[in-house]
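The instructor's notes for this session suggest beginning with a concrete chain rather than abstract definitions. Hand out the sequence below and ask the class to guess, before any prediction is shown, which regions might be ordered.
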Amino acid sequence: MDTWPDFHPCACIAVDAQAYGSNNDRRQSEIQHDLPRLLDRAARGAGLDRAQWRIQHKGDEQLAVRPVDGREPRLVDDYVRHLAAGLREYNAQRVPRARMRLRAVIHQGPVELADNGFAGTAVVATARLLSARPLYDALAAHPEADLVLLLSDDVFRSTVAGGHTVLTPEDFTRVTVRVKEYEAAAWLHVPVLGTPATASHGPGSAEASGSGEAARREPAAVRSGPAGAGGTGDEYRADNISVTNIAGAVDARGAVFGFGSAGG
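After discussion, reveal the predicted structure:
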């Protein structure tokens, strides 16, 4: 397990289960056993080792910190994608009232390993982001979603806006978080609404993207409407087909594939 002296630049990853307190004893116990397993599985799928993270447990909530090492785009892309897929599979086996739905936050900043946990304003900011009203509102507005994600402005600009993820600024909505003494801009994303299910770019492999104005537009994944009006529908439209060439193994559980010939 990584250790570091004094304050060290770290990524802070926090998750919290919705409506934990309204569950009975057995369901609370199940959540506390299953949540770490889901998080471990998502990390393995993303090629990350949570055994090397420092983790603070709190029942239905976890705060993990890891030194900044250039793999932050993998956290935003692959870790979140695998966590959303794991939750979808987990919840498919349960009645609606037994679903596990998570709020997730990724932030970064200096963190110290203190005697009673983690110290630093980055840790406090992460806790405030996890309590942000836009996260609760997103879960309420999208009952089909198992996960909602909030990135701090620093993380968003260094990963998504920097062009280091398959996610684009249009996949996020800019929100303002006000919790107690904390107030800051953050970026909201609902993975179930159309996140590309592919691996993340490596650092520096894509051009920087997203102007300030474009980043403030409602993400394309959130917009809805009839087919032919920027939304989804049952009508087949050949002009809207996109082709992706993939080499190597792909985790495509839950995906839908179509096959056809170039000549129709």
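Then share the key points. Confidence is low (pLDDT under 50) at residues 195-247, 256-264. Residues 134 and 240 are 32 Å apart (CA to CA).
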